[in-house]
Amino acid sequence: MQKEKIALIALVIIVIAALSVFVTAVNTDIFENLFKEKLTIAEGDCADVNYIGRYASNNTVFDSSYNSTANKTGGTPLKVFVSYNQTATSPKSGYTAGMIKGFMDGIIGMKEGQTKIIGPIPPEDAYGANKFGVGAIFTSQYFAFGMNQTVEVTNYTSENLSVRWIQMENLGNFTMPQLVINNLQSTNETEMVIYPPPYYIWENCTQITNITDTTVTVNTTPTKSTNLSDVVKDVRYGEKQMLIFPNVTTASWDDTTITVFCSPIVDQNYTFQTTGYTGMVNITIHVNTIIGDIINVTVTNDQSPEPSYLDVYKVLTFNRTFTLPRIYKDIPAMYISYFYGEDIKKAGYSLEPLAGETLLFEVTIETVYKTAQETS
To answer: What is the model's pTM?
Structure first.
């Protein structure tokens, strides 16, 4: 009996030894993974993170990295660069910052392989406390370009935005805008924007004279009749275009109208600078002919060899009064963030659909990359 017990023990030792050799030969990572220390996320690291996002109010899922949320299978982990600077560049290719503060707060300190619930995350640490919508008030110069207007949102959907100009009663003297949006749904420039009379030639010379529910009437009194500009200036009124040349453009007016008269010298070159995509651009305008009310010019610049030819008006006459719209309707969604996003943000609102919501995230840290140590 004793001999059989000894033989059995010897057999077990042999089997264990054989298995050990086999496992080591096949996959040495098994033992390494059993005993190595789990990496912990710190700011500046990168991580692969699976997540399920839920509304704290009713536990409904609004987003997930899994294809099957119920089974937590499929999908692709989120590649996170752990940084509170949402525009920071990751040291590891394919990883980005941009997650909300509450999410970052929650994953910092988690270990590789760990799963936990982050939250409830309050709106101010998520996508913003104030969701942009009807009743929101903000100020922008991109309704009447060049003029600050405070507006109130009257309609806002995923497709378009409508606003109403408010708080203009105490505006005082102001500079008239160069163009006013009209119908941004159109693809025709003449329908997209309105070019009002060029009152902006004279700064802070326009006043509001009447306000209705839908319109604002203004009146302009010019302050000078000569030396209207030190440089060549392009002005438009409706479909008419004029170039104001220095020292050769004058203005006159009566109680109802203003007339601007331009008399440049034929064969004269007029030069000025403007800002281009790559810096300052030197522009030369050569006066070719003046026939009747039309001045023909050649326009060249130092960044493009091809000249352009332009017919502009010699005389512009327009009323001293003009009616601006108070209502800007059906601005397409594609323009909202581009034109008004920063102004909306400055007013304390968020365009995010999840703004105003308290959130929960169930997260699993799949892999941690200690990029914070690599760059320190």
So the answer is: 0.76
